[in-house]
User: Fold these one by one.
Assistant:
Number 1:
Amino acid sequence: MSVSLGITHSAPLHSTCVLRLRYRPGTIPAKYTLHTVMVHDGNDKGGHYYSYIRPNPEGDWFKFNDASVTRATSKEAIEDNFGDDEEDEKMRTNFSNAYMLFYVKDDVITEELVPVTKKDIPGHLLARFQQEEQEEQEEKEAKTSGKTAGIEEVSLSKSLAITHEDAEAGGTHGRMEEEDISMPWLHSEMTHLDASKLLAGSMLLAGSTTNGAFLVRKRTTAVEANTYALTVVWKGKPTHHLIARNSSGNMTIRNGSRTVYGSRTTDIGSLIAELAATPGSGETGFWPVALTEYVDTNGTVVKMSASQ
């Protein structure tokens, strides 16, 4: 059994809740444990939705953000999702708001939250997991043999551990044979990891920690060919977003099959110029951060100009 309650001033890990329709006076109140925090990041015009879930009541929190699942702290899951009290939206620094909580009743928690076994996972997902594990193993072996340099997790916080040599090596990833002068932020196809290393490493050398720093990479061999991926720094770390055309031929930013931001533009250059003038709403959706500077194919951080 689970119930949903909206956040007001606090989100306790354990909550005592009396359901008057089910419990007669004098009975023991039911106790619940917080299981899920559903978050909206944006404003009333649009934004992005994701969830924090704690599958094991004694274990870690996990952030479920479309296709990405990462570990999270209780602070990230709870304390960071109360939005901002600043009335002027332009002055706000936190747009994350929890809008629904899910609690699980303590006396049935062991029945409801059972371990997931392989037989519970669809076959196509198992195959995908195995492929990802194989790719990760190949990357680790390449690093061990000295074929690549960098870090597994990229962060622009003080804990970022990357050397000058690492950043210079990362700067060669995705370099095109002939640079497109009109779109110097456009790179050839590369992995999420290589894009993160290139963006973070170049910014480190430039002494920049700017939200909105970005690069765009081509996706020529992906399942959805002739699309793009936008790698942009948001909340201090690189994030990745699919760019593809909708049925009308307009450029959109998507997470899976869901459109996060829709534009009236029909080419990648016009879309980037539009995003450089945000945050704001598009034809559909909301984009939370202006594209302020980019990393070119030489690994140099360059400020965006009106002509770009």
Number 2:
Amino acid sequence: MVAAEPVAPKAGNEWGPDDCPRCGGKNRLHIGPPCVPAALDVCSKYPSLSCSRDQTAAARDVLAERRRQVSAEGWTPEHDDDFIEGQIASAASCYASPFWARNERSMIPPNWPWHARWWKPRTRRDNLVRAGALILAEIERLDRK
């Protein structure tokens, strides 16, 4: 991958949709400053994770969360392919359940498929965004079969 030239932030330290040096705002795959190498790598390697300007904020948030899962957590499509017993969908169901949004973080859902350190509930909306991103990952995993 060719390193991108850093782009100066706009007023207020915000990045506009046209600031990505790789896609020029067409795919908006960056999850922060577009000069972050990991985000650019996600942009170029996984184009299916693109956002368009005509999507709702909820759809953009789900795609941004999926990009974060790939770039920050290492949950790449190749990694997801190892989970063939429904673990990703099970994790999504845990985040989607309103019960777990109301209860303490220390309570781990009984169907949580991974180590407890990966259970990171937040607000109801954040949990639904995570659930959506995990469902997207599971659907894409099935489509690759």
